[in-house]
Design brief:
853 residues; disordered C terminus; 24 strands; Arp2/3 complex 21 kDa subunit ARPC3; single chain; alpha/beta; 5-stranded antiparallel beta sheet; Beta-Lactamase; elongated; Alpha-Beta Plaits; 29 helices
Length: 853
Amino acid sequence: MDQRVVADSEPPEESERSVAGATAALAVGMLGVAVVLVAFALPQVSQLRGGLFSAWWLMVPAFAVGEFFAAHLRVGRSAFTVSFGHIPLVIGLCLLDPVGFLLASLLGSAFTLLVHRGQRGLKLLFNVGLWSFEAAMAVTLYSLLVGGADPASPRSILAAYGTIIVSDQLTALAVTAVISVNEREFDMSSVREALTWGLLVAVCNTSIGLLFVILMELQPVAVPLLLVVLGALLLSYRAYEQLHDSHEQLERHHGFAQSLAKEQDTDSVIAEVLDRTRELLCAEAAELHVTGRVFRSRSKGSAPTKDSSIPTSYWLDRVRGGGAVLLAVGTKDPIERALLDAAGIPEAAAAPVGIRDGADGVLVVIERMGEVAAFTADDLRALETFAHQASVALENGRLVDRLRKDAADRAYDAMHDSLTGLPNRRQFQQSMEDALGQDSTVGVLMLDLDRFKDVNDALGHTIGDELLNVVAQRLRASLPAELSVARLGGDEFAVLVARDATPDAIVSVVRRVSEALSEVVHVRDVALHLEASIGSAVSPQDSLSSEGLLQRADVAMYRAKEQRSGYEQYTADLDSSSSERLALFTELRRAVFDGLLQVHFQPCVHPLSGEVLSAEALARWHHPTLGNIGPDEFIPLAEGSGLIKPLTKLVLHRSLLELSRLRSQGLLFNVSVNLSPRVLLDADLALEVESMLLATGVPAEALTLEVTESAIMVDPAKAMRVLQSLKAVGVHLSIDDFGTGYSSLAYLKHLPVDEVKIDQSFVLNLSTDAEDAVIVQSTIELAHQLGLSVVAEGVEDARSLELLARWDCDAAQGFFMSRPLPSEQFGAWLRTRADAKRMVAPTIAGSSRGLGR
């Protein structure tokens, strides 16, 4: 028996030429040594001994048969062939003369290579060189050691052992050298493994061969018994090999399933499938044809690369029946032969990979590794199993891809502005925190587009969005990559100067921004001239925190807007009222949570009949020392400090309590309450409103909740969900300040609202301004066509009320009817109103300007 070791991986294309060259050089070198030994050593050793058996040609079949019947064993990444090749080698050394030995061994080996194993090209060259070297070395060494001694003598026996061991170890080194060249690495453990295995095989083979020689001399009739024993040993080993292979196959399937059971993305699954399939089926390469792409693995651990050997369409047609197919070595089918020849491979097998429904993928293995064997029926069954497991793993991989993408999208959305793609306030503040943590000078610029609201009002929300995108692109393009640009909300943008935020550096950035925005913007054939107000603050002198820097840059920006200066740098005198504002915030917080705010009511009446239809609830704050503080002062403070939600819910609850009390006295009317943008985005709002209605006993239809268009547009999708849930409770919904926001009646038809309130800016001069009159009258007519009621607020004279009645306006609200009144006074006013026979002007008169809502 002898050993053969075959490399497990095909060299990459870029190094195939160098690998082939090295292998050919080694083969030629071994052939050269064999020729030298034959030319110079063979004539000398031939004189030392003769041959006991002259019919050398009878040994040719022995060498061929010895190589033909073999068992195979794979160890690691190498393949070992255990055969009877050394038995005729030992017999030939002992019984034949040197020339006859060389002829018999080379002819028998060549027959095996060409006919049985079908080798051609470089493999044939290498193995011919290897066996020529082994035979020439063995016959030379054996002849020198044994001299003319009897083949059965102790000297001959020791010579045989020494010769076989030395020649076998040298050939093992040659083969491991080829493996190292092919795999482009030297593994000492593989060398030790090959030499150890070779030593064991050489000793066993030599012992059997010598036993055969001794029996030939002493008792030739016992030779058949030895052959029977050898046959039994071979059959036993074959049975063991099959059992071992079956067990190993189960382990492979289990390991393959375990490797694919891990949570992996599609790319990782593909790499795992290819590498494991190629390794477990002892293939030179593995391919996966899926979703119009071809991936290939040539060696364990290498990344899959596109490289198709046989067209995907051919494989898909062949596996359409659902089973694995084989393009076998030496196939006589002309189509199969042409495909294999075109791809330059001896054999290939494929099995269908089904993703969702049908077979839209194929798993392919190419060329059984080395000299071991061709693909077998067991290999095809294993390939089918691997392909099925790959189908499940790829589907799971696609699911993992989707989940990871969704998670990445959510993470991205949480840190970026959905309109412009710029970092949002959260991401910007995180960048500020990181910069401040590096003990560097940090500068922050805040800019606000001047008259952006006019663009939205005049041209609409779509044009406004496109304009914001243009601004974002210009800012990003005009500033260095190391500067972070963010959209904080609305038309507010910010720039972070993370290092060396000197005054000159800040001014340079301001100049770049101003120049970028100075060019005319063309949006849908509309030419827009951009201007911005910019404010800056610098750490550490202005603040040490991200919140402080943003607040101070905001103060400077608003000063620039007020002064129309374009740019202001923060100084302490710009924020002289900060301490007063902080104190006022503390007082407001106490007033909200201690329930010290009051609710006043301003009635809405029918323009023609004067009937009181409803009243709007308005928050009022009477400070114990500062007196009455107007809503235009404390409402913005509440919105900027996070108190707006509890304040709104306080007003809502207090309004329902007062409404319940007055309705119990027979004063039947409805009440409307304003919702801030932040409250409108509260997913639990509907549940809280329903709970308040139940607690106060007020029917849902007696409550109207007013929202502004701008509040809805902060997050239209979420606002729509909240509005629908409120509508399901049964309350009425109204669009407040209509005409000052996006002003789209077409958009209103998609909202679950019942009425619109025309903003007082259009109603105050209704009796004297013809343009305002046209706007109000048109709005009433269009709203009615959409099935909406209309309330006009800001009515301050009889002429305006008369016009609204003529245009069939549903309700009017304003100082002409009544100012906002405390609950007790409003109840008294209602009673007086009920007793009156005609509508009279109230005793309180004046302008609504400056008093707020």
